[in-house]
Task: inverse folding
DNA sequence: GCTGATGAAGG
DNA sequence: TCCCTTCATCAGCG
């Protein structure tokens, strides 16, 4: 070690046997990094940022750590450098990293922060040397969800389990520091409240305190609404929030932060060292490469965001608020005490006084109570959820610049899906009670403006500049098509499922030629029509092919299993003992449970769960199982084959090459669905890459703004309508699928709620 | 303060 | 043997 550099070495209070193998520096000039870089000649570098918060546009980095593994050196494993944020310095470091593989744990977030910190966007978008250790973890961990006791991807969890059991000490010390700072701020509030005869505890009861990244955020949203808050208290509270916002990591002392982030990059290097060989052994490089490329496309997408209508949101918030207040008033009057509807124990105690003993106060229980109190509680739970999770959440994010930004969890999902908070925005609007009554009388969708409390998708609007349309590309029933394709791959095509999407085993009504699905040209003739608009393909009973209604078919076979006699398919069934089933009840009840069960069964569900979830008698649930097996015998075969393969070789691989590993075979039955869900997801990830390549090649200004599992939303630049059929074409090509893939296109020039079919 | 249960959503 | 998720809140435990 050069003597002239000794002064930059940091003395760290906290060390573990793992972290002590790395040399740590706090530096102010690039030369100090460059010098060691030239000596060590690293192949693997790592980066991490400390920031003012989690908003991907608003928040800024205040400190960085950059480090590397020294190749083949065991005594000193690596070097890590922290430095206060400086755009120039950061840029040079990132430039330097280009000759190496640059890793980070959730590195997409750090790239956002680099851009927010002033680094040129295009420079970042050009990166092709990055890898996310979260991605490495996903591709090397077993396919077990956290819910089932599987590994979490959080750096702290991974490290604690596999690298260093003391890994959480560092974060604990930062959290403690944070608490100390916030305690001082809270004491100021406490003092002011005391003078008014109030307390912080009482304030916490009155208002919602939300948690953001472990930091408490005080809000003005009401919690226990019966608590009256005097105006002076409101004023004190409001001023305190304004003048003493709770501390972020930016306020924690540099010394503590430095120790903390040094440890983070050290652990990231260690995670890489442990997981990378497993990814290699599992032959997951193709998927890894795809994920690395996608990371940049997601980064771009996230930064666009969606424009929101803030006035509409604030209006909706107030409407929601008054409906909630109205209902609470009625509820408290009815039960004679002040409660919140989330207090399940209190509600259970209330029902005890009525002579109803219950363990839960869940939705099903309340539905069965059939009284006004239960009705109000159910409705209030829904309204409060909507107000807090959707309305105020969107406002919170969009307050910065009028746009809603979502971040995608690229690696969290076992199957390979992208996760994001936008996936839970409700599709349908929420109405007032009067509105619901009105629709019962006048028909669905007929509610008047005054009845609508909030229509989530109406809050998302097109831009009012040159991007004045949003186009929605939606893959039609993609998972069932892929499920059908898997039965074809096993050489046992499921007739009913295949016929839902193509005229399988049909022939041409004029030429007599067979419908062929094995090559792309012939496969695409699935939708050919004669001059009268009927399909040109006929089935073995000389009837024109119409897509199988798979849900009706399951219901039909379920009825047969229950000894019904079919008088007219899907329309009339008679029974020697029970009442007959007419068209109306077939559609409303039997097809409905058929549909529910079709999905359930594809996920491995059985009759007991069906009886519970669908609230039907056990013998009907058993009939559903029988009906399903009769309808889709080859899907059942597929499920058995996957389970067999999983048990035999310990892993299975989806259509794009992603492998799912299990050591505990008890959950092998789940893997059949992973293959279907995962193949769709990985193809979907390809779409995003392909579409962005298409944009680049054609100098398009249009851009992807959002995706939800099987839907891509594109903000269309004014003169680029021509790209719509091109993108549809890109998406309808799925090389490995023998089942035609269909994309539905919709478009809006106002809000998401108003999208219309595009021709 | 943390964890698990519950329940509101999406596919 | 009901799949993959996100987010918010309460109850029970230490």
Result:
């Amino acid at each position: 070690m050069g003597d002239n550099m000794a002064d930059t070495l940091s003395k760290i209070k906290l060390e573990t046997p793992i972290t002590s193998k790395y040399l740590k520096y706090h530096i102010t000039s690039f030369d100090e990094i460059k010098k060691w870089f030239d000596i060590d000649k690293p192949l693997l570098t790592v980066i991490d940022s400390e920031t003012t918060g989690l908003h991907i546009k608003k928040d800024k980095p205040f400190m960085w750590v950059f480090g590397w593994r020294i190749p083949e050196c065991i005594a000193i494993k690596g070097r890590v450098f922290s430095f206060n944020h400086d755009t120039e310095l950061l840029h040079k470091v990132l430039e330097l990293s280009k000759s190496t593989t640059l890793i980070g744990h959730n590195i997409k977030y750090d790239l956002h922060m680099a851009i927010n910190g002033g680094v040129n966007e295009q420079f970042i978008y050009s990166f092709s040397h990055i890898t996310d250790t979260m991605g490495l973890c996903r591709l090397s961990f077993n396919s077990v969800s956290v819910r089932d006791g599987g590994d979490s991807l959080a750096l702290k969890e991974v490290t604690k389990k596999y690298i260093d059991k003391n890994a959480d000490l560092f974060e604990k010390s930062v959290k403690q520091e944070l608490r100390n700072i916030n305690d001082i701020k809270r004491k100021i509030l406490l003092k002011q409240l005391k003078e008014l005869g109030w307390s912080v505890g009482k304030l916490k009861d009155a208002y919602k305190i939300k948690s953001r990244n472990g930091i408490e955020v005080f809000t003005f949203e009401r919690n226990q609404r019966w608590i009256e808050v005097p105006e002076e208290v409101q004023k004190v509270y409001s001023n305190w929030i304004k003048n003493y916002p709770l501390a972020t990591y930016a306020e924690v002392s540099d010394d503590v932060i430095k120790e903390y982030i040094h440890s983070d990059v050290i652990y990231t290097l260690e995670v890489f060292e442990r997981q990378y060989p497993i990814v290699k052994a599992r032959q997951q490089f193709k998927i890894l490469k795809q994920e690395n490329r996608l990371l940049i496309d997601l980064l771009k997408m996230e930064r666009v965001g969606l424009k929101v209508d803030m006035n509409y949101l604030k209006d909706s918030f107030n409407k929601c608020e008054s409906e909630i207040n109205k209902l609470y008033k009625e509820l408290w009057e009815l039960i004679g005490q002040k409660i919140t509807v989330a207090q399940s124990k209190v509600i259970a105690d209330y029902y005890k006084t009525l002579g109803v003993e219950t363990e839960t106060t869940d939705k099903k229980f309340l539905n069965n109570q059939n009284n006004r109190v239960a009705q109000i509680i159910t409705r209030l739970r829904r309204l409060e959820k909507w107000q807090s999770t959707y309305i105020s959440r969107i406002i919170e994010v969009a307050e910065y610049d009028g746009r809603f930004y979502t971040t995608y969890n690229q690696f969290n999902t076992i199957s390979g899906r992208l996760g994001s908070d936008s996936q839970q925005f409700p599709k349908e609007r929420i109405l007032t009670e009067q509105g619901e009554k009105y629709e019962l009388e006048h028909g669905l969708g007929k509610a008047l403006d005054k009845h609508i409390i909030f229509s989530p998708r109406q809050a998302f609007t097109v831009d009012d500049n040159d991007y004045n349309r949003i186009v929605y590309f939606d893959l039609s029933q993609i998972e069932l098509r892929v499920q059908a394709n898997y039965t074809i791959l096993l050489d046992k095509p499921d007739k009913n499922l295949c016929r839902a999407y193509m005229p399988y085993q049909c022939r041409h009504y004029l030429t007599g030629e067979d419908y062929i699905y094995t090559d792309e040209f012939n496969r695409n003739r699935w939708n050919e029509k004669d001059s009268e608009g009927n399909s040109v393909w006929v089935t073995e009973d000389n009837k024109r092919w119409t897509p199988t209604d798979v849900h009706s078919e399951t219901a039909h076979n379920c009825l047969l299993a229950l000894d019904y006699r079919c008088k007219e398919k899907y329309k009339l069934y008679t029974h020697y003992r029970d009442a007959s089933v007419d068209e109306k009840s077939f559609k409303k009840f039997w097809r409905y449970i058929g549909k529910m069960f079709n999905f359930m069964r594809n996920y491995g569900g059985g009759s007991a769960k069906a009886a519970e979830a669908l609230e039907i008698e056990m013998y009907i649930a058993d009939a559903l199982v029988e009906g399903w097996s009769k309808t889709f015998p080859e899907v059942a075969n597929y499920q058995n084959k996957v389970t067999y393969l999983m048990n035999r070789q310990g892993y299975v691989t989806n259509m794009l090459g992603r492998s799912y590993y299990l050591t505990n075979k008890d959950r092998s039955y789940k893997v059949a669905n992973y293959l279907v869900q995962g193949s769709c997801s990985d193809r979907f990830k390809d779409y995003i890459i392909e579409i962005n390549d298409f944009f680049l090649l054609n100098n398009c200004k249009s851009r992807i703004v959002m995706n939800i599992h099987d839907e891509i939303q594109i903000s269309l630049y004014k003169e680029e309508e021509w790209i719509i059929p091109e993108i549809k074409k890109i998406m309808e090509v799925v090389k490995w699928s023998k089942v035609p893939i269909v994309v539905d296109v919709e478009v809006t020039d106002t809000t998401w709620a108003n999208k219309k079919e595009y021709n």
About this structure: Residues 10 and 643 of chain A are 54 Å apart (CA to CA). The longest strand of chain A covers residues 61-69. Chain A is about 45% helix and 15% strand. Confidence is low (pLDDT under 50) at residues 1-6 of chain A.
